[in-house]
Amino acid sequence: MLGTPLAAHAADCAALFDTQVRKLHSKDNLDLCALTRNQPTLVINTASRCGYTGQFKGLESLHQRYKDEGLVIIGFPSDDFRQELDDEAETAKVCYINYGVTFPMAATSKVKGDGAHSVFKALAEGSEAPGWNFNKYLVSADGQSIRHFPASAKPLGGALEEAIKAALQTPISGQ
Q1: Which Pfam families match (predicted)?
Q2: What is the pTM of this model?
Q3: Which one of 13, 33, 50, 95 is the catalytic residue?
Q4: What CATH homologous superfamily does 15-168 map to?
Q5: Is the N or the C terminus of the chain less surrounded, counting Cβ atoms within 10 Å?
C-alpha cells in the first residue's frame, strides 16, 4: 500500500477502503475494497434519531438511480452526536424497514476523534471530520479526491447529485 490514505494500491482499491467492516445487525462483514473498487463512493455517517434521518429516502433514491452506473453508497451509523439508538436491531429497523434502505450499512461506528473508524480518519485527513450526522463524502473512483458535503446537503436535486453525475463521468486515472 502507498503512503497516503487516498492512494490506490495494486488491486485498484483506494487505501481508505482497504478494510472490512461488520454489516449492521449482522455477523457478516463488508469487504469495502471489493465493494468500492474503481467506483465513485458516497460515504455517510448516519443516525436514527436525527432531524436529518429522513434523508435516508433521498439517499436510497440516489442509490436506485445511480447504482447501475457504478455509484456505491455506504452508510455508517454513529452515536458520536448522541442520536443513534443503543440497539443495532432497532437501528437496522429504522434503516431497512422504516426507510427501505438497500445500500450497504456498516455496524455502528465512531466517526470522529481518536477512536474514529479508519475510513473516517482518512476522510477527515482528505477533507474534514463530520461535524454532525449525515455528512456526505464523495470519493472518486480512483480514490484521489474527496468532496465533503454537510448534513444540510440534500441527496437529490442539488450540488451533491451534480457531483455524483460528474464523478460517474470521470475516467479512472491510468486507464
Answers
A1: GSHPx (PF00255)
A2: 0.92
A3: 50
A4: Glutaredoxin (3.40.30.10)
A5: C
